[in-house]
Design a protein that fits this description.
Elements: H1 17-20, E1 34-41, H2 45-56, E2 61-64, E3 80-81, H3 89-96, H4 98-121, E4 129-138, H5 142-158, E5 163-165, E6 174-185, H6 188-201, E7 205-207, E8 212-218, E9 222-226, E10 232-240, E11 257-269, E12 277-280, E13 286-293, E14 296-307, H7 315-329, E15 331-345, E16 351-354, E17 361-365, H8 371-386, H9 394-397, H10 404-427, E18 441-447, E19 450-456, E20 462-465, E21 477-479, E22 484-486, E23 493-495, E24 500-502
Parallel strand pairs: 1-2, 1-10, 2-7, 4-12, 10-17
Antiparallel strand pairs: 3-6, 4-6, 5-6, 8-9, 9-10, 11-14, 11-15, 12-13, 13-14, 16-17, 18-19, 19-20, 21-22, 22-23, 23-24
Helix pairs in contact: 2-6, 2-8, 3-4, 3-5, 4-8
Length: 513
């Protein structure tokens, strides 16, 4: 009997396979006031796709990114193109009804097919490969198996393509699975690099390192302002594709979204992988798919979700995935590890569309880890809406909706959790003394009688920040796996020296040293 190697050395620092295997162009920051037809804020899959579609529709388009293009969630995805979004269709039937449940499936299916067709039309070499997707329940997990059976009943009621299987081909002990054929996997950044170049070829303009603030003026044109120096962007329409909406408009999105982090390893397996894309249906999420890398096949192993800022010992999540992968396939090496952040709405359906009846600002957020199709769909919908076209899915994804069930219940639970974190963060003791910190270690320490955030870098220099989140005042927690300060209330994230990594915050933490 073969003994599998169950452990390998985890990389010291996180690095995305996608970002490491593509050369992306760089762009200068905005330095003067500009006027355009459409300002698209956010350089991920939604922003780049929307910019591409709008410039092809004849609009003058400017794409604005707070950091670097594709350095957010899109650059750290597992990159599955599929309509199988976990246990979703039974819930949609219960809370949205048959018509809108079918619409959710159809709109995501059309988005998936559009990506594949566009890659072919533009002759993009992005590794698209058709594969079946499997949603499975672990053997012995009777509760999840019953949920999976209800999900399959929803597939049948809605007329969705799906096949029940008692077993799956990889050596997982599964109690059952739903197989959906003809889904796909790809290299998302190679695809989006091609889409970006097509946008530039049509006269599109890009600015990086240009953070847009929440202030908006509306007269004859919309006026957006940069956060740092209040440069003005005058436009007829604005698209918020910035993960967390840059503009709230009184909609209180911070109270209607919650942020979750999840983790990925790219492993070189000891035993062959038989293909397919896999997702567990239980609470402890596990995801599998293959990817080609330097003439070899790696397996992307993902999962271990938790609310941002509420995952104690974040490095342990990578270790959990390492243990799972080692026992399942064996591990020769682990070239990459990375994590990402996703936003989830109260009813688990994205918010896509116009923010209000008067303002020409459109948002796209809350993709619940399925941004490859939902992000593409969002770009298509917003492009149609800007052109004044009716879109059949507008009601389903309407940002102003509030479903009484489960929306109100989730709203209460979510915001009680925020209140708990707000209070507990103010009362927790310091973890260590400053002088006890080792190189490449962070913790909460006492400084001038106050609890502050501290990190000692590999060269031994100490970095101190006020860890009070600049969004709404919660106390950020140290993320040891990513060397960041993460807010447990609304998901803002900061570098160890205080710079904003993820919104809704736009203002850095105060540096103390």
């Amino acid at each position: 009997m073969d003994i599998k190697q169950t452990t390998a050395s985890l990389p010291q620092f996180p690095k995305s396979l996608w970002r490491d295997t593509v050369d992306l162009p760089s762009f200068s920051p905005l330095t003067e006031d500009i006027t355009t037809d459409v300002a698209v804020v956010g350089g991920g899959i939604t922003g780049i796709t929307a910019a591409y579609l709008l410039v092809n529709a004849g609009y003058q388009v400017v794409l604005l990114e707070a950091g670097e293009l594709l350095a957010g969630t899109t650059g750290f995805t597992s990159a599955k193109l599929t309509t199988q979004h976990g246990l979703i269709y039974h819930d949609l039937l219960q809370h949205f009804g048959e018509e809108q449940a079918r619409m959710y499936h159809r709109s995501n299916h059309e988005a998936m097919e559009w990506v594949i067709r566009t890659a072919e039309e533009l002759k993009l070499s992005c590794g698209i490969k058709r594969e079946p997707a499997y949603l499975y329940a672990d053997a012995g997990d009777d509760k999840t198996l019953k949920q999976l059976e209800k999900e399959y009943e929803a597939y049948q009621q809605l007329g969705l393509a799906g096949e029940w299987q008692d077993n799956i081909s990889i050596p997982l002990m599964a109690g059952g699975a739903i197989k959906v054929a003809d889904q796909a996997r790809f290299h998302p950044l190679q695809y989006l690099k091609g889409l970006l170049q097509a946008f530039l070829d049509k006269g599109g303009v890009v600015y990086e390192h240009t953070m847009i603030g929440e202030k908006v003026q509306q007269k004859d044109l919309l006026t957006l302002f940069t956060e740092q120096d209040e440069l003005k962007i005058h436009c007829r329409h604005a698209v918020s594709a910035s993960h967390f909406p840059f503009y709230d408009g009184g909609a209180l999105y911070f109270s209607r979204l919650h942020a979750e982090r999840s983790y990925c390893l790219a492993i070189e397996p000891e035993t062959p992988f038989e293909g397919g894309m896999y997702l567990s249906a239980g609470q402890t999420t596990r995801s599998l798919r293959a990817v080609e890398w330097e003439g070899r096949e790696l397996i992307i192993v993902g999962g271990d979700n938790h609310k941002t800022g509420q995952g104690i010992c974040t490095f342990g999540h990578y270790e959990n995935l390492e243990k799972f992968a080692g026992e399942l396939l064996g591990i020769k090496s682990i070239p990459y590890r990375w994590s990402t952040q996703d936003l989830i709405t109260l009813d688990r359906v994205p918010y896509i569309g116009k923010i209000s009846g008067e303002e020409e600002i459109y948002i796209a957020t809350g993709f619940r880890k399925w941004g490859m199709t939902n992000g593409t769909l969002a770009a298509q919908m917003i492009c149609d809406q800007i052109q004044g076209k009716e879109h059949s899915c507008s009601e389903l994804y309407d940002p102003s909706r509030l479903k009484a069930n489960p929306g109100i219940k989730n709203f209460i639970v979510q915001n009680l959790n925020v209140a708990k974190e707000l209070v507990s963060g103010k009362l927790e003791p310091a973890d260590k003394k400053k002088q006890e910190l080792q190189p490449d270690e962070g913790a909460v320490v006492k400084h001038d009688g106050k609890r502050v955030g501290a990190y000692r870098d590999p060269e031994g220099a100490l970095h101190l920040v006020d860890r009070t989140c600049t969004h709404m005042g919660c106390e950020c927690e140290w993320n040891d796996a990513e060397r960041s300060w993460d807010c447990p209330c609304h998901g803002s994230r900061y570098s160890y020296s205080g710079e904003v990594l993820e919104g809704p915050a736009t203002v850095p933490l105060t540096k103390l040293l």
